[in-house]
Amino acid sequence: MRSRPTAAALAVAALLLTAGCSGGSGAPEDTGTSASASRTGGPSARAEHTPPAKGSVKVLRTVAEGLNTPWGLAPLPGGGGILVSSRDEGTITRVDEKTGKKTTLGAVPGVAADGEGGLLGLALSPAYASDHLVYAYFTTDSDNRVARMLYDPEKPAGEQLGAPDTVFKGIPKGLIHNGGRIAFGPDKMLYVGTGESGERQPAQDRKSLGGKILRMTPDGEPAPGNPFDDSVVYTYGHRNVQGLAWDGEQRLFAAEFGQDTWDELNAIEPGANYGWPEAEGKGGGPKYRDPLAQWHTDQASPSGIAYAEGSIWMAGLRGERLWRIPLDGTKASAEPQPFLKGEYGRLRTVVAAGGGRLWVTTSNTDGRGDPAKGDDRILELRVT
After folding, report:
1. Which residues contact 52 (CB under 8 A, 6 or more apart)?
2. pTM higher than 0.90, yes or no?
3. Of 15, 52, 102, 213, whose CA is between 20 and 30 Å from 332?
4. CATH of the domain at 53
5. Helices and strands (H, E) in the chain, number of each type
6. What is the DSSP letter of 273?
7. What ranges make up the beta strands (E) of 247-321?
8. Are 239 and 201 in contact (CB under 8 A)?
9. Domain-located, residue 260
10. Residue pLDDT, tens place only, 59-92
11. Residues with Cβ within 8 Å of residue 111, at least 6 apart in sequence
C-alpha cells in the first residue's frame, strides 16, 4: 500500500519552501507550454549545459488538493494562477498558486467523458496577453477536437469561459488512446498529441489523424513548413502521445504509451515514422525512429513531460513515479533516474514553473488509482 505525505511532512515541505525559495525567480511562461523559446548557442553551449548523471527532487509543498480527475495544466502569466482541466467534470478551474484557492471558470460544452476521454489538455494562446484565449482538447460524442474560449476573470465564477470556437475536429476517439496533450511551441504553432483510439491501423496511415503529432496554426490550418503537403500531420507511427516539451534549443520531445513491453520518450523530427504498430521500443529497423529512452510499462506508462535544468521530467501513471532523463542534444546523457516512487500514486501532468521548479498533478481519481485523503493534488517540486 503506498504511503502518503503526513501533515508533519507537509509542514516540513512548507518550511523548506519558505527557506529555500523565497529568493527564486521563475514566473510561469505565458504560453502554458513546458518549453523555452530561447537558444543557448552552438555545440559548445550544449556541452556546457549537459546535466550531471544524477539529480535530485524535493517536494516543496502541496499547491492544491481535492481536484477531480485533473488532466491539463496551463500556468497564467505573471503569477496569475494555474488553470486545470477536469477530465470527467468537463470544467476548467483556476488555482491560486499561493493560497490553493480554487475558482471554477465554467464547463466546456460538448465534452463527453467516457473511458480515457473527456476534457484533456490545455494551452494558452501565444497572444494571451492581448486575446485571453484558452485552448482545450476534448472528447465529444463523435470525435476529439480542439477549441478555444475567451477567459474573462471579471465575470462571476462559473461564467468566466466564453462559448467554444472549434479550431480543429475529426480526431478519432475511443474508450482508450485519445492522446490529448496540446502545447504551443517556440514557433507559436499549436502541437497536438493524438492516440490511435485503440485501433492499430490509423497510426501508419498519414491520411488519418490518429496516432500522430499534429502541427497547426492557432486557427487550425496546416502550419507552414509541415513535412506533408496541405496536412497537419507532423509525425506518425505513434500509439498514444500524452507528453510534449521543448528544450532550450527548441528541440521537441514526446512521450507515448507502449502496449505490453516498452513505453517511449522520443526526439521528434518532422515527417519521421515512430513505428507503431510495427515496432514498439528500440530495434524496429531502419524505417522507424528509435526512442531515446524506453521503460517497461509497469515502470512508466507516461503522460506529461516538461523540460527543466537540462533534463526531461516525465510523469508515470502506472509506474507511480517521476522520471528524470538528462539530455545531451537529442540523446540521453545518462540512465533515466526515478523519483517519488509510490509516494503520491499516479502522476499525470508536469509543467515547468521556472527557477528549477515543476508543478506536478496526481491522477488517482481517474478510475485506475487508489485515492487517498486530499487526492487529487498539484505538487510543487524543486529539481536539479
Report:
1. 326, 334
2. no
3. 213
4. 2.120.10.30
5. 3, 25
6. B
7. 252-256, 262-267, 293-296, 302-308, 311-316
8. no
9. yes
10. 999 999 999 999 999 999 999 999 999 999 999 9
11. 90, 118, 119, 138, 139, 140
